[in-house]
């Protein structure tokens, strides 16, 4: 009978035990499943975060810099970082060419200053210009010359372009003895080739922030002297 069947089901020890287990441990199993899902989500987020850090670490952290050049002297006056590199300012190229000539041809009895000029010169030379300047310095050793005389260099106006990558510069070299007496004054001209290679390391930014390199030099005395 229906009433008797309900009584048998209610009194079944197996069914009663199952019902009790579901009531006591079912919620625990459900909570454990939720925690597993939460833990899995945290692992996925952690992996995404680590992957992002690795990607950022592999990116180039060097930021392009813009160099402001003094309009009168033509020398670098200020350096600031930029989000995007643009065209190299004309005055920066002119200033670097003038700097190369000055550091190359100056002779001073201050040995530390002389070595500093040569070090700066090296940071702005590349290609055949490096070999040309090295050969000239070997034949006209500034440290040996400084024992008897000094040479001051005066750039005659800003270098002017003669083509897309070539510039013409004129300068005067005044040779004096250690008593300050002028021994000679000679005017020179040179055609230099220039290439732009943006710096990619901190050391390169410090040494040559504009990335302007003189890659070739052809020079001679001015005619009519």
Assigned CATH architecture of the largest domain: Roll
What is the SS-derived class? alpha+beta
Estimate the strand proportion: 25-35%
Count of individual beta strands: 7
Mean pLDDT: 81
CATH fold-level name of the largest domain: Nuclear Transport Factor 2, Chain: A
Query: Any idea what the radius of gyration is?
Result: 38 Å
Labels describing this entry:
47% helix, 7 strands, Nuclear Transport Factor 2, Chain: A, alpha+beta, 225 residues, 5-stranded antiparallel β-sheet, two-stranded antiparallel sheet
Can you put this structure into words, describing what you see?
Strands 3, 4, 5, 6 and 7 form a five-stranded antiparallel beta sheet that branches. Strands 1-2 form a two-stranded antiparallel sheet. A hairpin with a 4-residue loop joins strand 4 and strand 5. The chain contains seven helices and seven strands. The chain folds into two domains: about 55 residues; about 130 residues, VirB8 protein (Nuclear Transport Factor 2, Chain: A). The chain is α+β, with helices and mostly antiparallel strands and about 220 residues long.
State the gist of this model.
By secondary structure, this protein is α+β, with helices and mostly antiparallel strands. Helix content is 47%, strand content 25%. The protein has two domains: 2-58; 88-221, VirB8 protein (Nuclear Transport Factor 2, Chain: A).
């Amino acid at each position: 009978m229906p009433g008797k069947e309900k009584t048998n089901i209610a009194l079944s020890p197996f069914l009663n035990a199952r019902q009790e287990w579901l009531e006591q441990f079912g919620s625990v199993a459900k909570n454990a499943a939720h925690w597993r899902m939460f833990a899995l989500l945290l692992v996925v987020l952690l992996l995404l975060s680590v992957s992002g850090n690795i990607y950022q670490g592999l990116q180039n952290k060097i930021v392009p810099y813009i160099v402001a050049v003094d309009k009168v002297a033509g020398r670098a006056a200020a350096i600031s970082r930029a989000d995007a590199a643009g065209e190299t300012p004309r005055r920066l190229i002119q200033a670097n060419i003038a700097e190369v000539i000055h550091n190359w041809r100056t002779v001073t009895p201050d040995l530390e200053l002389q070595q500093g000029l040569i070090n700066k010169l090296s940071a702005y030379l590349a290609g055949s210009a490096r070999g040309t300047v090295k050969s000239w310095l070997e034949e006209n050793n500034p440290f040996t010359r400084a024992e008897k005389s000094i040479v001051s260099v005066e750039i005659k106006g800003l270098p002017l372009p003669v083509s897309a990558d070539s510039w013409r510069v004129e300068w005067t070299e005044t040779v004096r003895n250690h008593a300050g007496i002028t021994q000679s004054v000679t005017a020179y001209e040179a055609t230099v080739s220039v290439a732009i290679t943006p710096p990619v390391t901190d050391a390169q930014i410090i040494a040559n922030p504009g990335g302007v390199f003189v890659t070739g030099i052809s020079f001679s005395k001015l005619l009519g002297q």
